[in-house]
Amino acid sequence: xxxxxxxxxxxxxxxxxxxxxxxxxxxxxxxxxxxxxxxxxxxxxxxxxxxxxxxxxxxxxxxxxxxxxxxxxxxxxxxxxxxxxxxxxxxxxxxxxxxxxxxxxxxxxxx
Length: 111
What we know:
Low-confidence stretches: none
Number of strands: 0
Strand content: under 5%
Structural class: mainly alpha
Number of helices: 5
Largest sheet: none
Helix content: over 70%
Oligomer: single chain
């Protein structure tokens, strides 16, 4: 529903404004990645993981018990690598694509 609203709002903007929104989204993505990178390096994965889950779940309910098959099959390092490697990599690619698309659109409109 939010995506449909965004598409509707983007159609109301001029080409330059749409390009600016894309560029700003890329900047916001890079800034968010930088903030999370700093937080992960200074606070550690477990602390950030707990802080992000606490508003949505009862405390500790997102952790698997030590005897759980899931906890033994997928150790904590696996989850860290998934977050940093897969999600982080995708966020970098998406941010770069937004920056590129926005910059090319704004450059084209200035001519």
